[in-house]
Amino acid sequence: MSEPRDPLGPEGSQDPLRSLFRQAGDFGQGRSVADPAASITERGMRAQRRRMAAVAVGVCLVIGGGGAAAIGLLPVTPKPAPPATSPSPSYPSPAPPPPAGTPTEPPTPSNTVPGSEGPATGSTAPQGPPTTEAPTIASSTSTSASTLGATPTP
Fold first, then answer.
1. Collapsing DSSP states into helix, strand and coil, what is residue 26?
2. Alpha-carbon gap, residue 13 to 25, rounded angstroms
3. Among 13, 36, 82, 124, which residue's CB has the most CB atoms within a 10 Å radius?
């Protein structure tokens, strides 16, 4: 190594700091001893174990954080919202009964008239109680016979 040359020579320098550093360097070189190869290898192995442990911790944190983020992003069905007002403790009142004369059951073949689109009862005026007499055929044919022979008047 080349050192910068002093204009006054190696022994004749007037800089006190420079001479102190030279003394410290000479003292350190005389007392320094190289470590044995076994201790250097041991230090290297310790450093490698620390690095591997740090990598393992980092991988666990990444996997755990990714799992937590995935769980947080999954859609969750919310609980139903409670009503705005609190419900009364009693049961709701029953529906009012249907008005008289309206059918309460769906139409079936027994309560419909063939050829009509709706039930026989319901939209028409309610019929009275059933009578024990059946209508006579003669009275229905007499009215139809009288209308057949008549001519319409303009």
1. helix
2. 17
3. 13
Q: What is the pLDDT along the chain (154 residues), one digit of tens a residue?
A: 556 665 555 555 578 899 999 999 999 888 888 889 999 999 999 999 999 999 999 999 999 999 999 888 888 787 888 777 776 666 666 677 777 776 666 666 666 666 655 555 555 555 666 666 655 665 545 554 455 555 656 5
- Residues β-bridged to residue 119: 112
| 137 token code pair | 């055929």
The whole model's pTM is what?
Answer: 0.33
Residue with tokens 């250097």: 40
* Residue 21: HSE in the Cβ half-sphere, 13 Å Cα cutoff: 5
Residue 122 sits at the vertex; the CA angle it makes with 105 and 138, to the nearest 5 degrees, is: 115
